[in-house]
């Protein structure tokens, strides 16, 4: 238990070497079993389960607060005496409690309820009977267990959130920061650990009505209650916080109900900012919300910044005309247009389909997985990427959303046609002798026909508009085909096509191919 | 100017920013170390202001001097607001002091644009660097990124900050051009893309220097232009897909003092912002697509939540048998959230789900009753027309306000 780090002051575990309580003997005698910590409960519950003592036969005495009278005999004798023969029964196997349930029990043990130990034992008992539904909210006990766990977690959370440290003057010595909080459940040990992580080597103290924790910069110390109310420490830093709190509030959105829903009423009296809330709310309701700015700021003289509009505009690179392209709607969902890249006077131009997810972000063609495959194929074909020009038939990424991913979508023929203008421009500027069409979209764009099919042109270089056209698969086709065999074939075909293009570029006539 | 006065002006200037979450950072602790600060990945709200929004971070502007003229922004250069500027040390001191007193979980820092995008970004990075390196501050840092700044500066920001954000500001390029003339959707998208590439690189290479471990987010102002909810959500969906954002924040436009004529004088209903957040949550966590929530141009219904609206428009899926339905579909039933859907699936592995189980799970029975079938229950109203169901399930009408002029949003 996290409480291990904070020596509790309760008499129950003040002395770690004390002999464990003989829970079974107490139960048989009809005495309540004293429990001061989850550790005590765990030991006692294990003994009771092994001896098959049913929950209704056990009385527990755990104080509401850790320093109550644990051995109060007030309840003694109420339980029916258990048969003395209990001890002669063969013991049941050791209970096996899964870690999640153990954590829930541990957490629920911090919930302040008079019957908390009895209830937790009932849970252990039912688990031991194989009733796994106690883990479900739909079970009555399960629901209560979950409710307790939740309430404790909630209380921890609230203490993390609404505890306020005040800084003491350096002359006062340690602790440097002091806080007061009134938790509804026994969450101080866990919460203290949270603050130990937060504050590093800076010393602090948290007081509650039941106990106090001190952090000296190295370790935690627990004692009984030392403070009686909110820390009586003057802290000038609080004024800044109130200024911030008042200023960050947007009166135009007044919605005090939500605020009240989040900060439970019992915390308000110890929250410094709570004192200024009524005034803020009434001001907002009285018109400040219409302006949307606090009148304190409004009263000050303002300043406009004297700068001409042209001078204010940031210096940006002039977007290329391709960036401004609105020939189709694909630009809307894309990050940027991806132009071709490569040698200005390349003899070979590779044309793919369209930029993908990675290309769209990087602004360069073939940098994603398909690009990696193409690089490998080029290596194998003896083609130098720096000496060729690589581009796409369509310059913007077309996709549709799939959760948080972008699913590639094949461009429609009208988008291919709209984008042909840019491919044409590239063909004119680069003037390659050979064009490799990677996939059917590229082929359709080059031939400007939506009806051509790849299989009519595969493996057979042909001349079009005065240049050689070589047709092969798109690298992402090779990435997509399911069988390894088909993938090898596709890659081989791409390599073969690149070799063909390379040979054509080296001046070999296709007849010799 | 006193620190207190600066804080007043520069916190006031930051209050229109909706994002304030402090979650998603890796676990860090200062126990036994020099410096201060811890994060547990979850984030905590440390207070709430009467506008119902939480205070989890010190949310301030470095300065509200700004050479841009964004029409929806109170700090635009033509606005007549008091101006102030923090020094780097002042922001650092405020952050550390507030953190020690447990007022905040960290810093959310934004700034007006001064001199140039690069200069402004350098200042923001300097603050984060000082906090991390000089003060060994391990709390949460969220830096607003200036989109036109040098990518090297954004890179540096990502080394110190847990989260980076670039605001898209408005749902369409036209609106940005009209209302934020100095901004450019193109550079905003490039900055987001650049951050995503860095995040991907870091993910692929865990040993690389850290980069914005809590990811990136953005903010969109709702109601300053005429865009409808479908446009807004489509833009959000595009941004989520393209840049793997953690969150898109929707900020209902607040009327500002001496508002320019280009923006409306009245704010949109607050409920609209709320419905957008609900719809956004359905997109992020429930597997809904915008096309399902809003098949045609228009706004989300204000009287019912988006999931109920979807269910009423798609009655063919209902009533759904909780003992047979796909887990993902159970979460689509109005009144059953992700957590309860999971609990129902867990429970039905052990036994049949019954009506009383749902009551114990605290499902909103009024809402789910017409849509479910359990082992012992079948809705009598499963053929009731959607319109009638909607009338019976619409949010309860409030009593007429006594002082409408005070309560009018």
UniProtKB/TrEMBL annotation, chain A:
Record flagged with keyword Isomerase: no
Signal peptide (residue range): none
Ranges where the Uracil-DNA glycosylase-like domain occurs: 339-499
Keywords: 4Fe-4S, DNA damage, DNA repair, Hydrolase, Iron, Iron-sulfur, Metal-binding
Keyword Transcription (UniProt): no
Record family assignment: Belongs to the uracil-DNA glycosylase (UDG) superfamily. Type 4 (UDGa) family.
Protein name: Type-4 uracil-DNA glycosylase
TrEMBL record, chain B:
Entry keyword Metal-binding: yes
UniProt keyword Flavoprotein present: no
Record keywords, A-Z: Iron, Iron-sulfur, Metal-binding, S-adenosyl-L-methionine
Organism ancestry: Bacteria, Pseudomonadati, Pseudomonadota, Betaproteobacteria, Burkholderiales
InterPro entries assigned to the protein according to its UniProt record, in alphabetical order: Aldolase_TIM, DNA_rSAM_put, Endo/Exo/Phosphatase_dom_1, rSAM, rSAM_sf, RuvA_2-like
Radical SAM core domain residues: 61-189
Full protein name: DNA modification/repair radical SAM protein
Cofactor entry: [4Fe-4S] cluster
Organism: Pseudoduganella chitinolytica
Gene3D superfamilies to which the protein is assigned, alphabetical: Aldolase class I, Photosystem II 12 kDa extrinsic protein
């Amino acid at each position: 238990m996290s409480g291990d780090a904070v020596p509790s002051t309760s008499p129950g575990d003040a002395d770690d070497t004390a002999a464990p309580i003989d829970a079974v003997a107490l139960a048989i005698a009809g005495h309540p079993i004293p429990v001061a910590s989850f550790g005590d409960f765990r030991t006692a519950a294990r003994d009771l389960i092994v001896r098959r003592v049913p929950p209704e036969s056990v009385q527990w005495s755990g104080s509401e607060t850790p320093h109550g009278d644990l051995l109060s005999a007030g309840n003694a004798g109420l339980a029916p005496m258990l048969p003395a023969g209990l001890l002669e029964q063969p013991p049941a196997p050791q209970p096996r409690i899964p870690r999640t349930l153990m954590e829930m029990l541990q957490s629920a043990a911090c919930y302040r309820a008079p019957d908390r130990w009895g209830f937790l034992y009932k849970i252990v008992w039912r688990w031991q009977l194989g009733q796994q539904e106690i883990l479900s909210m739909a079970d009555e006990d399960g629901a209560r267990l979950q409710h307790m766990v939740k309430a404790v977690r909630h209380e921890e959370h609230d203490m993390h959130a609404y505890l306020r440290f005040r800084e003491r003057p350096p002359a006062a010595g340690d602790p440097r920061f002091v806080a007061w909080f009134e938790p509804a459940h026994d969450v101080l040990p866990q919460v203290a650990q949270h603050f130990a992580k937060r504050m590093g080597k800076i010393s602090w103290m948290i007081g509650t009505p039941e106990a106090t924790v001190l952090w000296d910069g190295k370790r935690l110390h627990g004692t009984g209650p030392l403070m009686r109310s909110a820390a009586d420490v003057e802290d000038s830093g609080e004024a800044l916080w109130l200024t911030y709190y008042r200023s960050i509030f947007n009166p135009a959105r007044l919605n005090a109900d939500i605020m009240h829903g989040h900060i439970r009423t019992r915390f308000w009296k110890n929250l410094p900012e709570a004192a200024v809330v009524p005034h803020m709310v009434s001001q907002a309701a009285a018109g400040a919300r219409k302006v949307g700015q606090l009148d304190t700021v409004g009263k000050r003289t303002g300043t406009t910044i004297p700068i001409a509009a042209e001078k204010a505009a940031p210096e940006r690179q002039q977007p290329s005309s391709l960036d401004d392209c609105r020939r189709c709607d694909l630009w809307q969902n894309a990050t940027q247009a991806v132009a071709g890249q490569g040698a200005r006077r390349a003899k070979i131009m590779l044309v793919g389909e369209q930029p993908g997810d990675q290309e769209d972000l990087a602004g360069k063609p073939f940098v994603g997985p398909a690009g990696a495959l193409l690089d490998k194929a080029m290596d194998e074909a003896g083609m130098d990427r720096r000496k060729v020009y690589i581009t796409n038939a369509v310059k913007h990424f077309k996709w549709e959303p799939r959760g948080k991913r972008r699913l590639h979508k094949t461009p429609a023929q009208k988008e291919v046609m709209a984008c042909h203008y840019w491919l044409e421009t590239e063909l004119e500027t680069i003037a390659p002798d050979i064009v490799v069409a990677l996939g059917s979209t590229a082929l359709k764009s080059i031939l400007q026909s939506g009806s051509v099919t790849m299989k009519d042109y595969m493996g057979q270089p042909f001349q079009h508009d005065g240049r050689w056209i070589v047709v092969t698969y798109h690298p992402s086709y090779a990435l997509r085909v399911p069988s390894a065999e088909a993938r090898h074939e596709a890659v081989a075909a791409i390599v073969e096509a690149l070799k063909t293009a390379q040979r054509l570029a080296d001046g070999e006539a296709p007849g010799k191919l | 100017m006193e620190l207190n006065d600066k804080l007043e002006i520069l916190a006031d200037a930051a209050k229109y920013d909706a994002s304030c979450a402090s979650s998603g950072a890796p676990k860090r602790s200062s126990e036994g170390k020099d410096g201060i600060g811890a994060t547990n990945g979850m984030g905590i709200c440390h207070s709430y202001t009467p506008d119902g929004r939480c205070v989890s971070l010190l949310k301030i502007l470095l300065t509200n001097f700004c050479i841009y003229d964004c029409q929806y922004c109170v700090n635009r250069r033509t606005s007549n607001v008091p101006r102030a500027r923090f020094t780097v040390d002042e922001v650092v001191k405020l952050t550390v002091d507030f953190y020690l007193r447990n007022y905040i979980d960290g810093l959310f820092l934004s700034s007006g644009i001064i001199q140039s995008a690069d200069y402004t970004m350098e200042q923001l990075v300097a603050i984060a660097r000082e906090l991390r390196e000089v003060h060994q501050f391990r709390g949460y840092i969220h830096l607003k990124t200036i989109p036109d700044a040098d990518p090297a500066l954004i890179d540096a920001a990502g080394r110190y900050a847990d989260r980076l954000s670039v605001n898209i500001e408005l749902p369409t390029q036209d609106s940005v051009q009209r209302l934020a003339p100095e901004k450019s959707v193109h550079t905003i998208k490039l900055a987001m893309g650049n951050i995503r590439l860095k995040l991907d690189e870091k993910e692929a290479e865990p040993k690389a220097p850290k980069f914005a471990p809590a990811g990136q987010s953005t903010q969109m102002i709702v109601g300053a232009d005429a865009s409808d909810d479908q446009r807004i959500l489509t833009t959000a969906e595009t941004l989520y897909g393209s840049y793997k954002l953690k969150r898109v924040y929707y900020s209902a436009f607040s009327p500002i003092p001496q508002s320019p004529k280009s923006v409306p004088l009245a704010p949109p209903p607050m409920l609209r912002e709320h419905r957008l957040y609900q719809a956004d949550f359905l997109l992020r966590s429930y597997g809904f697509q915008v096309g399902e929530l809003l098949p045609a141009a228009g706004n989300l219904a204000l009287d019912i939540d988006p999931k109920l609206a979807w269910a009423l428009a798609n009655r063919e899926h209902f009533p759904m048998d909780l003992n047979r339905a796909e887990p993902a579909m159970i979460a689509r039933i109005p009144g059953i959230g992700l957590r309860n859907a999971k609990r129902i699936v867990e429970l039905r592995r052990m036994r049949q789900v019954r009506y009383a189980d749902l009551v114990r799970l605290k499902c909103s029975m009024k809402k789910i009753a017409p849509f479910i079938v359990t082992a012992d229950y079948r809705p009598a109203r499963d053929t009731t027309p959607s319109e009638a169901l909607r009338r019976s399930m619409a949010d309860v009408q409030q009593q007429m306000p006594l002082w409408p002029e005070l309560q009018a949003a």
